[in-house]
Amino acid sequence: MNDSPRAPIIARLATPTPLPPPVLRLSRPEALRVVLGLLLAMLLGALDQTLVSVALVSIGRELDGFSLTPWVVSGFLVASTVATPIYGKLSDVYGRRRLLTIAIVMSCAASVLCAFAQSMPQLIAARVLQGLGSGGLLVLVQSVVADIAPGAERGRFQGYLSGVYAFAAVAGPMLGGYLTFYLSWRAVFWLNLPLGVLALITARRVLPGRGAARREHRIDYLGATLLAGGLSALMIALTRLGQGHGLAEGGTLMLFGAAGALLALTARQERRAAEPLLPPALLRNRTVVLCCAILALQFFVLIGSTVMMPMAMQSLTGAGPDAVALRMLPLTLGIPFGAFTGGRWLHAAGSIRPPVLAAGLLAATGAAVFAIVPALTGLPQFLAMLTLGLGLGLSMAPCLVAAQTAVAQHEVGVVTATVALCRTLGGAVGIAVLSSILFAVVGAASAAGASAPLSVLLAEGARGGTVSPDLIRGFQFAFATASLMSLTAAVLGSQLPGGLGSRPAT
Predict the structure, then answer these.
(1) Cα 302 to Cα 149, 184, 416, 479, 497, distances in angstroms
(2) Is 340 in the same domain as 261?
(3) Fewer CB in 10 Å around end: N or C, the chain?
């Protein structure tokens, strides 16, 4: 046994630690070339999530599995959420280029399996594999930007990426609908193959290799397993709520209980692990926590609105799918324009708080208009949706850049993955909560004999029949909740630091 005073120092030097990802010293044109080259990977990851939603009816009809169609989306979402923090940690250890290659190849291979699926269980299994690949694309691309650009400059580049993601999030269902109508639902998955090949070639060309330097490292496999189990249980429980299952149902309560227990065990394991998957220090970093909370709230509104708005348009105004696609255009264009503007605003002013505060107020205003008049049409609808879209986009780049700047360079991948995880969870909670509000309001009236079930009311409204006041009230409560979430995001945004500050020492 060595009792020398130098022993603790020697022990710390011998402790395996990950090799920090290199901070690439690139000129602005070189950095821009890398970012533009990675936009295809970002687009692939975003379209994987959104293309299939409009094709679900056709899929259920052909594969004779309507009861399982929600899991075509949910299975992907669960797998993507689980994979996100794991990719962040592994990329900090093994490098962005290698992990990005794995993610793209896995996503493309899964797309082929989806296109050839002959039954609903086969398709769901392939979508889970696709989610495991796609879960790494968004976080890895955003981590690369943190490696190649300083704080304020990074905001400009993250604005490009956020704009592409936001555009695909809203435009994906439109593209998927047209492909399904004119070709087949299988074309939705075949589209990913040429896009993925181009993304892979481009990413391999613009990203440098890791280099020869290595250090020993330890991967927290137990923590990863516990986190994967806890997030899976949580996502499945939220999905059940969004599909109309009650919170007090035995299956839902068991899932929430399992999620709570597994995530508590994850927290305990992360405090003990030599190299934790999610370092507890991140949860003590005020800027990181605020940014994660703000983006979770904004994605609550973003994803929830993209589900609620088309439903409201069809059931309250009798609009067909083609008309809905056109009416969604202000939101489709407003979100990426807001994301781009937020990045430029941060780059020009070097300040986080103003764009984030403006984002929350604008989004809250846009959602509040629909809470007052959910059946809005014409120019007022256009302006309200544009305001909502601008607000939802403005905070994306500044919050991500602020979180990345608040940690040391070797934690950039982890913190980027943590932010992405919070966004995904926020979106899942948004769908679950807003759908549950609609079910609850209409369900209460239906149980009292004053209204028909929700499915009947939605169908009658879509056919141009009489619109139920209970259905209108349900949408009003849902959009009022969305407005409140964005207002809360604005309050949190006012607590952010004004400037970017300096990165902590590694």
Answers:
(1) 28, 28, 19, 11, 25
(2) no
(3) N
Whether the pLDDT of residue 413 is over 60: the answer is yes
Phi, psi of 407 (to 5 degrees): -125, 165
- Asked whether residue 97 carries a pLDDT value surpassing 50, the answer given is yes
Neighbours of 243 (CB within 10 A): 15
| Structural domain contains residue 2 | no
Q: Which of 480, 162, 486 is nearest to 335 (CA)?
A: 162
Q: How far is CA 466 from the centre of its chain?
A: 36
Number of domains within the chain? 3
Same domain, 200 and 228: no
Q: How far apart are CA 371 and CA 407, in angstroms?
A: 39
Q: What is the pLDDT of residues 50-89, one digit of tens each?
A: 788 767 767 877 887 766 776 787 778 778 877 877 787 7
User: How many CA atoms, within 13 angstroms, populate the side-chain half-sphere of residue 273?
Assistant: 23
| Confidence (pLDDT) at 27 | 60
455 falls within a domain: yes
CATH number at residue 137: 1.20.1250.20
Q: Note whether 301 and 430 are within 8 A (CB).
A: yes
**In this structure, are 262 and 355 located in the same domain?**
no
Tokens 């047209």 appear where?
Answer: 178
Cα 115 to its chain centre, rounded Å, is 24
The DSSP letter of residue 280 is: H
Report how far residue 307's alpha carbon sits from residue 436's, in angstroms, rounded to the nearest whole number: 12
Domain that holds residue 135: 24-209
pTM of the model: 0.72
* pLDDT tens, position by position, 11-35: 333 334 444 444 455 566 667 777 7
